[in-house]
Amino acid sequence: GQQLNQSPQSMFIQEGEDVSMNCTSSSIFNTWLWYKQEPGEGPVLLIALYKAGELTSNGRLTAQFGITRKDSFLNISASIPSDVGIYFCAGHPTPQTGANNLFFGTGTRLTVIP
Amino acid sequence: DAGITQSPRYKITETGRQVTLMCHQTWSHSYMFWYRQDLGHGLRLIYYSAAADITDKGEVPDGYVVSRSKTENFPLTLESATRSQTSVYFCASSEWTGGGYGYTFGSGTRLTVV
């Protein structure tokens, strides 16, 4: 099955720093979703993007749907300790004809050093 | 509380045993999914269901069986558990939000096959 290339795999940052991570695909996606997963829990949706070029914010989080429709970026500003977790991108090639084909990246493990 | 719940949270079973993981959602979402999460592979789709009595295979269906007699329930059965099925299993549900599909995940079931 198709997987998305997510980078970096892990990040160690100081509290207060900004964070950037991205996700790329070899094929076109019509939806990009960003999830955060904390230990022992399921992924929780952070931001959903449905249009190429769309830039959406959720508090200190900002995500963009790449204009080529093959990539997406997530930025976290002024990181805090509770930002720790694994961040996953997920892409959906055909939102109107198949809810089954949601593909996930392998995750970015974020550690915030106080 | 409304939401998506999985049970049990933890399960240890022996090789060759049959085990069923339960998933229940209270939103009446049409789509439900089962994913497994393994290190290095991210989340991979096992089976999905578009509605009651409609199910289909995902990326890694071998060794698993699903059913969906009611919209709110989507149990996953391992017919004869193998050690390679040791994993964390996540159930998810999805509904069209107008802009695209939104996915919500349960908290997961950690299954160990010994």
Structure notes:
The complex is a heterodimer of chains A (114) and B (114). In chain A, the strands form 2 sheets. In chain A, strands 2, 4, 5, 9, 10 and 11 form a 6-stranded mixed sheet that branches. Chain A has strands at 5-7, 10-14, 19-24, 31-37, 44-49, 55-58, 61-65, 71-76, 85-92, 103-104, 108-113. Chain A starts with a strand and ends with a strand. Chain A contains no helices and 11 strands. Chain A is mainly β and 114 residues long. In chain A, a hairpin with a 2-residue loop joins strand 6 and strand 7 (61-65). With 114 residues, chain B is an all-beta fold. Helices cover 0% and strands 55% of the residues of chain B. Chain B is built from no helices and 11 strands. Chain B has strands at 4-7, 10-13, 19-25, 31-38, 42-51, 54-57, 64-66, 76-78, 87-96, 101-105, 109-113. Chain B starts with a strand and ends with a strand. The mean pLDDT of chain B is 92. At the A-B interface, strand 4, strand 5 and strand 9 of A face strand 5, strand 9 and strand 10 of B.
Name the features.
heterodimer, A: 114 residues, mainly beta, 6-stranded mixed sheet, 5-stranded antiparallel sheet, 0% helix, 51% strand, globular, B: 114 residues, 7-stranded mixed sheet, 4-stranded antiparallel sheet
